[in-house]
Amino acid sequence: MLKASAILNVPVYATTQNAARLGPICSELSLPPSTLHADKTAFSMMIPALQSALDDSQGTSKQIAIVGIESHICVTQTALDLMKMGHQVYVLADGVSSCNEGEVGIALRRLAHAGVTITTSESWLYECMRDASIPEFKQIAALVKETKETTREAVQTLCKM
Hints:
single chain; 3-stranded parallel β-sheet; alpha/beta
């Protein structure tokens, strides 16, 4: 999703949960330099730094896609907070996890019931593009092809829940 966000010029916001005690974001993610990163102790990402960044971007209601760990805690609380703020929220099912695998399906069902759109990364990317004639289409299609195996594995795992 980080590669796709760079191609589509989608801003990236990242948080760590109490990095002093739980550690930093893993270096394998290679967050782009433009990423707004903040550490937090709240479980929701909707801390003042992120709220301010969202307020400063264009428009009032935004379409926001969420990926992250601990789907039943941080992802859920962030999604619900964003919904309360009037945003259209997508949780990318193949981009969330939990230390307790059983929590993922329960969290996704709860969020869907609350009005959050639960979808896959591929579906969300094509929804963002809307049309194959845009210049970014070929890059995104190649990225989807490159990651299809890991996406398929994630979706199959989630379908078993």
